[in-house]
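Input (structure):
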C-alpha cells in the first residue's frame, strides 16, 4: 500500500520561501499524476498544483507565478517550491495521487511576521 509523507513546512516571514517534499513508500509514484493541496483553518481543502508523470504542471490561480511543482521519479518524490509567500498561504499542505489514496498527515506552513 502506498503511503505519502509530506515534509518541509515551517514558519516563514512574508516574502520568504519554502520547499515542501512528498515522499512515497510502498510503491513508485512515477506513473501517477501528483497533486499538492492545502487546507487553511476553517476552510475546505483546495487544489494548489499538479504535475503529470512526464512533468507537465498546472496551478491554482492564487499561486501561479510563485509556486513550482516538480518531481524526481527516481526518488519517488514530488516537491513544491514556494516563493514570495503570503500570509494567506498559511495552511496544512498535503500531497496525493490522482485518483486519491488515503491522505497523509500533511505539513504545516505558517507565513507570519
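Output (sequence):
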Amino acid at each position: 500500500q502506498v503511503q505519502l509523507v509530506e515534509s518541509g513546512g515551517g514558519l516563514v516571514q512574508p516574502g520568504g520561501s519554502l520547499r515542501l517534499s512528498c515522499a512515497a513508500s510502498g510503491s513508485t509514484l512515477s506513473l501517477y499524476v501528483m497533486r499538492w493541496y492545502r487546507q487553511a483553518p476553517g476552510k475546505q481543502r483546495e487544489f494548489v498544483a499538479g504535475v503529470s508523470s512526464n512533468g507537465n504542471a498546472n496551478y491554482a490561480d492564487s499561486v501561479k507565478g510563485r509556486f513550482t511543482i516538480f518531481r524526481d521519479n527516481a526518488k519517488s518524490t514530488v516537491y513544491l517550491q514556494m516563493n514570495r509567500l503570503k500570509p494567506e498561504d498559511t495552511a496544512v499542505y498535503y500531497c496525493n495521487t490522482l485518483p486519491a489514496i488515503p491522505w497523509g498527515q500533511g505539513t504545516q506552513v505558517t507565513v507570519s511576521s
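Notes: Strands lie at 3-7, 10-12, 18-25, 33-39, 46-51, 57-59, 67-72, 77-82, 91-98, 107-111. The mean pLDDT is 94.
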